[in-house]
Amino acid sequence: MQVDFLKICMVGAGGFLGASSRYILSNFVQAKFPGSDFPFGTYIVNITGCFLIGFLLALFAIKNLGDEQLRLFIFAGILGGFTTFSTFTNDSFLLFKEGELLLGIANAGGQILLGLLFVWLGYTLVKLVF
């Protein structure tokens, strides 16, 4: 595999912007609900990221915008750093859109269920070992 340093830099720069934006927006939103245990900040970030990836995906496709580096910067970088949830839901959406119902369900359901299971496994492992 040949490494393309420019592509890595585009994703990394976008990731910095996306992750920083996630932190700022999440904290801003959560501060509006003092004392709440519900993760409003994360919730808003994830839903916003889903809207943005859908909007930009359609805009780039319809208008045939951007080269590969720009798309990497925005989609893998900024939006990937902002929330991987938007990428996960977009992958599932594209499977459903392409008529791959079972693969879409396997992706969406599998990642949620396995994600919860593996968070529990990691947590339990630490509690057992330490």
Walk me through this protein's architecture.
The protein is an all-alpha fold. The chain has two domains: 5-99, no CATH class; 103-130. The protein is built from five helices and no strands. It has helices at 5-31, 40-63, 68-82, 84-97, 101-129. The N and C termini lie far apart (39 Å).
Helix content: over 70%
* Tally of distinct domains: 2
N-to-C SSE string, H for helix and E for strand = HHHHH
Task: Give a count of the beta strands, DSSP E runs of length 2 or more.
Answer: 0
Question: If you average the pLDDT, what whole number results?
Answer: 91
Strand content: under 5%
Q: What structural category arises from helix and sheet content?
A: mainly alpha
From the alpha carbons, calculate the radius of gyration and give it in angstroms.
17 Å
Instruction: Give me the oligomer status.
Output: single chain
In whole angstroms, the N-to-C terminal distance is 39 Å
Low-confidence stretches: none
Major sheet attributes: none
Shape: globular
| Total helical segments | 5
Give a quick summary of the entry.
The chain has 130 residues and is mainly α.
Outline the secondary-structure elements:
Blueprint: H1 5-31, H2 40-63, H3 68-82, H4 84-97, H5 101-129
Name a few traits of the molecule:
130 residues, mainly alpha, 2 domains
